[in-house]
């Protein structure tokens, strides 16, 4: 990642007469990355960025974020379609721009090219899964608590347990018979994280609540048993009625 501070240094070196190729070697970056930065030298020169800042949020705060997500989605789809083969992927700049337009986003080739180069290499499958989980959490966070509670109340615990058992049966069947086990396992793990985990959490919360509800009852019973007085009249009457030898 290139910070705004470093981008300013690149612009200054270029204006002092240093060639693009020399700057690229100095910072160990591609010449296309340096050229992309120099195209925006006027905006970079006018920024007062804190040290360590890597994005020019004032310039396009939302577009770069959207392009980055599109890039990761594109890579993930390609990997799944090609059986997760470790091959060099085709150019992604044009395709991410096209994908962005189909989703109503203002995306330029410069935006996409900059993000591709800043990533340096494609994210791993685990990183993609992490991004997906993060997006799922953001989506779940937008759901109102009232609506979520109402949806949970409509499900019984026995229905959820039955559904979880059926899902385990499906997983075993797919793992046994699917021709590409690597793709199948990753897809099932993704579904586990994004869908099934929600229902398991409901069961955990309900079980925890049942335990909490039972705890005061047990404590009260023990306290009552320990404080109950012993009826001494019973022992006295027993002694009086006992015949003497």
UniProtKB/TrEMBL annotation:
Residues 3-45 form the HTH psq-type domain. Residues 229-245 have a biased composition (Polar residues). This is HTH psq-type domain-containing protein. InterPro entries: Homeodomain-like_sf (IPR009057), HTH_Psq (IPR007889). It holds the Pfam family CENP-B_N. One of its GO terms (molecular function) is DNA binding. Residues 104-157, 217-245 are annotated as: Disordered. Residues 147-157 have a biased composition (Basic and acidic residues).
């Amino acid at each position: 990642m290139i910070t705004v501070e470093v981008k300013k240094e690149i612009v200054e070196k270029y204006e002092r007469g240093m060639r693009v190729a020399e700057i690229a070697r100095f910072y160990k970056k591609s010449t296309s990355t340096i050229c992309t930065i120099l195209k925006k030298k006027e905006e970079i020169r006018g920024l007062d960025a804190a040290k360590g800042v890597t994005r020019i949020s004032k310039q396009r705060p939302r577009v770069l974020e959207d392009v980055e997500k599109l890039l990761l989605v594109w890579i993930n789809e390609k990997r799944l379609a090609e059986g997760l083969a470790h091959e060099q992927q085709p150019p992604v700049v044009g395709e991410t721009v096209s994908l962005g337009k189909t989703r109503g986003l203002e995306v330029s080739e410069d935006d996409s090219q900059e993000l591709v180069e800043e990533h340096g290499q494609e994210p791993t499958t685990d990183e993609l899964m992490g991004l997906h989980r993060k997006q799922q959490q953001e989506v779940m966070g937008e759901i109102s608590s009232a609506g979520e509670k109402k949806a949970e109340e409509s499900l019984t615990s026995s229905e959820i347990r039955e559904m979880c058992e059926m899902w385990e049966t499906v997983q075993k069947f797919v793992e046994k018979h699917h021709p590409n086990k690597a793709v199948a396992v990753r897809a099932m793990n993704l579904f586990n994280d994004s869908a099934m985990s929600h229902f398991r959490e409901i069961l955990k919360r309900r079980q925890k609540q049942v335990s909490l509800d039972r705890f005061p009852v047990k404590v009260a019973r023990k306290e009552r048993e320990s404080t109950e007085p012993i009826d001494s009249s019973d022992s006295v009457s027993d002694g009086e009625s006992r015949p003497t030898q």
